[in-house]
Amino acid sequence: MDVLQSIVVFLHLLGMAMIFGPWAMGMLEKKHRTSMTMVIGAATQLATGIMLAGLAGADGNHAKIGIKAVLALLLAIMIVVPWYKKREKVASGHFYGIGGLTIITVAIAVLW
């Protein structure tokens, strides 16, 4: 079970990198848009987050799991909607919200 959990955690971190990497590049290049890489990262985060919650079972921190699930859903919506509508650029506040939510979600995972 430890090996399975380690693999799922690795995939979860990879999903986070797929969101944060393109976001950081967009911020540096002043090109505020979402990409397919970010969409795949959001889907990976949701899927592996559900797996990790299932692996934790009854012993998991349910408040933390609930908060992270809500934030992950909001983040996925913020990424997928502009990408699906094929917008070349998203509003600056929206774009920085994606990065902020990503950082907050990582902080909750690490510090809580």
UniProtKB/TrEMBL annotation:
Superkingdom of origin: Bacteria
Membrane-spanning intervals of the chain: 6-25, 37-57, 63-81, 93-111
Name listed for the protein in its UniProt record: Uncharacterized protein
Keyword terms: Membrane, Transmembrane, Transmembrane helix
